[in-house]
What we know:
CATH architecture of the largest domain in chain A: 3-Layer(aba) Sandwich
Strand content of chain A: 5-15%
Number of strands of chain A: 9
Strand order of the largest sheet of chain A: 3-2-1-4-5-6
Radius of gyration of chain A: 21 Å
Structural class of chain A: alpha/beta
Order of helices and strands of chain A: EHEHEHEHEHEEEHEHHHHHH
CATH topology of the largest domain in chain A: Rossmann fold
Helix content of chain A: 40-55%
Shape of chain A: elongated
Number of helices of chain A: 12
Oligomer: homodimer
CATH superfamily of the largest domain in chain A: NAD(P)-binding Rossmann-like Domain
CATH class of the largest domain in chain A: Alpha Beta
Amino acid sequence: MIRKLVIFGVGLIGGSLALALRGANxxxxxxxCSRNAAHLQKAIDLGVIDSFTLDPxxxxxxxxxxxxxxxxxxxxRLLEQIKPALPADAVLTDAGSTKGSIVxxxxxxxxxxxxxxxxxxxxxxxxxxxxxxxxxxxxxNRRVILTPLPHTDPTALRAVEDMWxxxxxxxxxxxxxxxxxxxxxxxxxxxVLAFSLVDTLLNLPMREDIxxxxxxxxxxxxxxASSDPVMWRDICLANKDSIVEMIGKLQADLSEFATLVERxxxxxxxxxxxxxxxxxDSYIAYLExxxxxxxxxQDDQ
Amino acid sequence: MIRKLVIFGVGLIGGSLALALRGANxxxxxxxCSRNAAHLQKAIDLGVIDSFTLDPxxxxxxxxxxxxxxxxxxxxRLLEQIKPALPADAVLTDAGSTKGSIVxxxxxxxxxxxxxxxxxxxxxxxxxxxxxxxxxxxxxNRRVILTPLPHTDPTALRAVEDMWxxxxxxxxxxxxxxxxxxxxxxxxxxxVLAFSLVDTLLNLPMREDIxxxxxxxxxxxxxxASSDPVMWRDICLANKDSIVEMIGKLQADLSEFATLVERxxxxxxxxxxxxxxxxxDSYIAYLExxxxxxxxxQDDQ
Lengths: 301, 301
């Protein structure tokens, strides 16, 4: 049970959490905070939060749970702002798409020994974003990954676990570095690729024809290039090392592929593509078998 | 009106054409030919063809229209086989995904002056393949691209145009080289990327976690990696130059992207990703506006 939940950044992620917890009567009060009063008023009108303030220090007063759901580029400054007023027994958690960067920022502001921060990443999304898109059942059967540190207070961890469990989410725990590598591979790299592919095509002389003749496969493949550039800029900056490493690995694979094509090595191409097809087909079969337990998201970050 | 249509390779593409033409009473007889009698018998049972033979020379006897719908790697040998028996007034066309290679093969077998070959590429597909997946309305509102050569006989071209028009397809005409570049960009490159991405992930130490945590975006993005490796091997070999060129361009773009990430150039990243998002969104808006006229295919090649 949470007494006062403060949500910084009341959009799809924070708003859906608030709706789920309020629906379950798990929160006495939910306070929203951002820099946009009209937007926060809308969140009140939609029944997502109880009240709001534009002042981060006022917001965290008497709070026992604080969720940071602002764009990752805004986290550092926000931490500085709330530091003087954050109650000693409050639990701090976040919803950022990468974990190493926020862990470093919290350490920098609150010190290395700070035990009441629980890094979190709810893997849920919809095509739409913003508080208008918030729904109480967004997290049902969706994954929420927590990456507690060795010195994280077990009580704080349990409080965050309990909170997410109330939303119907499936909880997972893994080290910060593994989280960032896995997400770099499965989410960040595909996004980088989609943005780059569209950009490559834009620079071709026959781009008019290209966009005219592009068909279904291209549409699916580039869907994620329609994602929010601010969020993805922040993710790229925050998960720099893993993303650069993944781009390098893919570049090496692409070079090998190009060499096989150039050498007209049909057998080599067939082997490579069969292996990929087989892995992808097994992955889909795995998903089919686990459909009941964990839902896929439409727009994971 | 076609007297005798011969289809080499009675699968989804050839079978659906046969069903559409028979449904429109546009063919007196449809003869199937491949190396698999059981498969051809099935095509008869399904009402797709009237009769079959395993002998390419017997097949083309008295034919006025011959469609090559075998895998591209099998085209060259087939051309050699039918050459001695192809009637002088028969029209030869194909359904291959690249056009430069088949044009070269036809020239090699029939000579540079051969006027009765009309290179074609029906851009249509379904998740399923094979004659069992053939349907009479596959081509309704789908694009069929023809790439006639300067010396192509206008009567032959008209015969192929009329045939496809009967299926409800939207006809387009463009030069061979443009076709191959545009398809390399919009279809072949995305496929190469999807195959390579899955392969890159397979080689990572944490691949178990990766496939476990991969979510919606990854699934869409790699869907085309489940395509037929034989077909894609042949496409890569046949459209070698364009594909290698496109991989090179994408590699250059990816390197630039990686440099921006490494330099923590947030503005550069934002500019690049916004541009891609805008182009992709306009493309989707364009598609929405043209939905009524040209249908997207599920699995274009």
